[in-house]
Amino acid sequence: MNAAVRAVVRSALFRGLEVYGVQRGYQGLLNEDLRQMDLRSVGDIIQRGGTILQTARCKEFLTPEGQQRGADVLRKHGIDGLVVIGGDGSYQGANKLSKLGIKTMGLPGTIDNDIPFTDFTIGFDTATSIVVDAINKLRDTMTSHERSSVVEVMGRHCGDIALYAGLASGAESILVPEVPFDIREISQRMRENFQNGKRHSIVIVAEGVCGGEEIARQITEHSGIEPRVTVLGHIQRGGSPTHNDRILASRLGDFAVERLEAGDSAKACGLVKGQLVTTDIDTVVSTKKAFNMDLYNLAIRLAQ
Ligand code: F6P
Predict the structure, then answer these.
(1) Which domains are present in the chain?
(2) pLDDT tens profile 153-173
(3) How many CA atoms lie within 13 A of 118 on its CB side?
(4) Residue 231: strand pairing partners
(5) If pLDDT is split at 50, 70 and 90, which confidence band does 199 have?
(6) Most CB within 10 Å of its CB: which of 100, 180, 269, 277?
(7) Which of 111, 152, 207, 231 to mutate to test the pocket of ligand 1 (most atoms within 8 A of CB)?
(8) Does the C-beta of 110 come closer than 6 Å to ligand 1?
(9) pLDDT digits over 220-248, tens only?
(10) Which of 33, 88, 112, 245 does the annotation list as catalytic?
């Protein structure tokens, strides 16, 4: 997110615009917590995780009164356009503001990769890399002790972190909310694999399926194997971003400012097949991102 904030600020200043940062998202907007940003205010942040603007969940902004007050605050401070970085909730808020006459532009900022009309969201590559790194480490113990591991990853209702990290780390089973599975069959395959000389077994489970502990319990019930469970949790949301995320954020941040200055509004920016695109936020928030079954089937074929 910091790379996106940096890109928006510097791109806008380059174009001769004045830029204000809203601290703590919509909560900060309602609190009128705005500060002017200059070139140096976004220095030394491109390599940092999190966001210098901080973030917050804001119940008040879910109400029509809260949204109207948000629009009033922006008008009072002479803000002509708002760039919102976030996931579904942030986009819903931007959509409401645009209907109240505020020019808005959305940037897809979430580790979940659950926003349609962009191939990837900002943060997804970093989170997935963290999961792959963790599984590399887990494999050392699992192989040495000939054990199995259940790794629970984030993603809310989306299985992309599990899918991409599972494929990249050679996990034997990838459990995601988008694809039904038979835990009995998975458990039996694990037992056969051990009997046929496999020295470890990694099961990656997306949080949208159920908890890792529950999956481990079911595996034990059906196979007698006692997997060790690792819940990676918020570790996935921190650390220095990958170069892919920094470049994605830089391109999208610059593009958002360009589109706002050109008069666009109520759009979400994305990168599709290498091309920067905008899509109506209305369409984005009412569309479910398609799950990549080709990648999923590839992971299954290769995990024998
Ligand atoms: O949407 C990003 C995400 O990290 C999800 O993967 C996860 O379910 C959720 O946020 C966790 O939210 P919180 O930090 O509020 O517990």
Answers:
(1) 2-123+241-285 (3.40.50.450), 125-238 (3.40.50.460)
(2) 999 999 999 999 999 999 999
(3) 32
(4) 152
(5) confident
(6) 269
(7) 111
(8) yes
(9) 999 999 999 999 999 999 999 999 999 99
(10) 112
